[in-house]
Amino acid sequence: MAANSETVYIKADRNVEVTKPDVTLGDVLTMECSNPSVVPKLNTLKLLKFHHTDKKNQNRVAISILKVIEIIHEQFPNMDIQNLGEQDFIVTYEQQQTAGGLVHLLKAACVIVITFIGAAFSIMAFNNDVDTVKLFSQIYELVTGQKSDGFTVLELTYCIGIIIGILIFFNHFGKKKFTVDPTPMEVEMRLYENDIQTTLIETYSRKGKEQDVGSTNTSGTHRT
Q1: Which residues fall in a coiled-coil region (predicted)?
Q2: What single string gives the DSSP state of each residue in 60-125?
């Protein structure tokens, strides 16, 4: 075949989510070749098949890029393959279940209430530890010469300052971001996701469950 002498560039992300049980290379890889007829053929090559055996409707499998190269070489033995992405990646199959509008609103309301209570408790605990009320009372009496009644301009500006500080720190208010930089929450979530993905890949590799060169179980799946 003419495609046998071509060079194809492949790239895989660390974690790829699919919504159908039959997974092909085109579902998990980005591929490029100077010959426009090569990539469509590679996209249709079967990588693995998930079975509906997980009660949580989710399955995961770790795959070595060498397994992908092996599959391609089975059809195009002389093809030169250049990997520009991850050496090991995770394919996650999850059946899409769209929650109703009322369920979604209830979940959002619960998250908001829990977050508000947790944040309020943390702020009150901090103020109690440093005795902010006593500190403000002393400052107010020192500056004005009058005894504080517990609600002065210091307490008011302190509350306003906390709100402004939180908004600036998290760089987010509703759907609006103040700058183009990712928020601290987004950074922490990406770090957490990277740690989870690295742990999963290493766990699969150590237990010998990673699909690698020589593995013939491309029609099954391993579950966490």
Answers
A1: none
A2: EEEEEHHHHHHHHHHH-TT-EEEE-S-SEEEEEEE---PPPHHHHHHHHHHHHHHHHHHHHHHHHH
User: The tokens 């742990």 sit on which residue?
Assistant: 199
Could you list the pLDDT tens digit for every one of the 224 residues in the chain?
A: 444 468 899 998 888 888 888 899 999 999 998 888 889 999 999 988 887 655 555 688 888 899 999 999 998 888 899 999 888 898 988 876 665 678 888 988 998 899 889 888 988 898 888 888 888 888 888 888 888 877 888 888 888 888 888 888 777 776 777 777 777 778 888 898 888 888 888 888 887 777 776 665 544 444 33
CA distance 10 to 12: 7
Helix, strand or coil for residue 46?
A: strand
Distance CA 96, CA 105 (A): 18
Domains of the chain: 2-97 (2.60.480.10), 101-202 (no CATH)
199 phi and psi angles, rounded to 5 deg: -65, -45
β-pair type (7-11, 30-33): antiparallel
Q: Which pTM value belongs to this model?
A: 0.64
